Amino acid sequence: MTIHTMTPRRALTAVGNETVKGLRHGWSERLQILIEMPLFIIFVLLLGYTTGKGDTIAATGALDWSIDTSHASWLIIGMVVFIYTYLHVQKMFWRFLAEIQTGTLEQTYLSPLPSWVHVVAGRIAAAIAETAVVAGVVYAVTSLFVRIDLHWRPAALVPLALLITGAAGLAMIIAGITLVWKRIQLLNDLILMLIFFFSGAALPLADMPSWAQDIGKPIFMTHATEAIRIVMVDGDALAWAGTGGWAWTLATATGWFLAGLTIFHFCERIALRRGSLSRF
């Protein structure tokens, strides 16, 4: 038997193959993506028209069906961040589950690359590609109803990269749990719903109870969202400390990635011992 050593060229080839596979999966689901886009648009517009207007509704008994520019700009950042996280985790879960069911996941262990690289690599490229399309359409349609004022600055790319890192950690956590318990879609949806609420994607953290703010502090999406808002909505530079500061954004993204790596390896060992990589 010939044992092939891992060289940089072979590593790039393996990662490239996973990336191409992820993009092919995304292209095969283009109809589903087209169906999802109107749902995201309706969701964003409904949030824009209703969130933060509780006092007005209580005082007048009516809803003012208008959105101001500052609120729309603030909200669109939170929703784009959540859409990326949602698509990354959901697509990873369903495609990972399909590979387990069809038995193709076992091919991962024929590669000299670590198994977690296969889980992360292709899914990230596919999630970025799908999110770019969905977020672009959501932004374009929302801008037809209200003016969105954003500062398009390169400084936003760093918290965006940290968002992708944190989301990859969450995806590995879900992948590891899927290896052991398989059909966990309800748990998956619950985790995403809680992250959406406690991260301040749609509601300002300052308006939440103190216990909700404490829950949101260790969530990677909380600080990535706030950091991107500071740069693109407020037009300011990021501070070192505080919500959305460099320290919290870097620490939470790194922490979630390392936690995902640890949990995935732990669950993977359980699945290997059970011999359940390709059966339910």
UniProtKB/TrEMBL annotation:
<feature type="transmembrane region" description="Helical">
    <location>
        <begin position="246"/>
        <end position="267"/>
    </location>
</feature>
<feature type="transmembrane region" description="Helical">
    <location>
        <begin position="157"/>
        <end position="179"/>
    </location>
</feature>
<dbReference type="GO" id="GO:0043190">
    <property type="term" value="C:ATP-binding cassette (ABC) transporter complex"/>
</dbReference>
<feature type="domain" description="ABC-2 type transporter transmembrane">
    <location>
        <begin position="59"/>
        <end position="232"/>
    </location>
</feature>
<feature type="transmembrane region" description="Helical">
    <location>
        <begin position="186"/>
        <end position="206"/>
    </location>
</feature>
<protein>
    <submittedName>
        <fullName>ABC-type multidrug transport system, permease component</fullName>
    </submittedName>
</protein>
<feature type="transmembrane region" description="Helical">
    <location>
        <begin position="124"/>
        <end position="145"/>
    </location>
</feature>
<feature type="transmembrane region" description="Helical">
    <location>
        <begin position="71"/>
        <end position="89"/>
    </location>
</feature>
<keyword id="KW-0472">Membrane</keyword>
<dbReference type="Pfam" id="PF01061">
    <property type="entry name" value="ABC2_membrane"/>
</dbReference>
<dbReference type="InterPro" id="IPR051784">
    <property type="entry name" value="Nod_factor_ABC_transporter"/>
</dbReference>
<keyword id="KW-0812">Transmembrane</keyword>
<dbReference type="InterPro" id="IPR000412">
    <property type="entry name" value="ABC_2_transport"/>
</dbReference>
<keyword id="KW-1133">Transmembrane helix</keyword>
<feature type="transmembrane region" description="Helical">
    <location>
        <begin position="31"/>
        <end position="51"/>
    </location>
</feature>
<dbReference type="InterPro" id="IPR013525">
    <property type="entry name" value="ABC2_TM"/>
</dbReference>
<keyword id="KW-0046">Antibiotic resistance</keyword>
<dbReference type="GO" id="GO:0140359">
    <property type="term" value="F:ABC-type transporter activity"/>
</dbReference>
<dbReference type="GO" id="GO:0046677">
    <property type="term" value="P:response to antibiotic"/>
</dbReference>
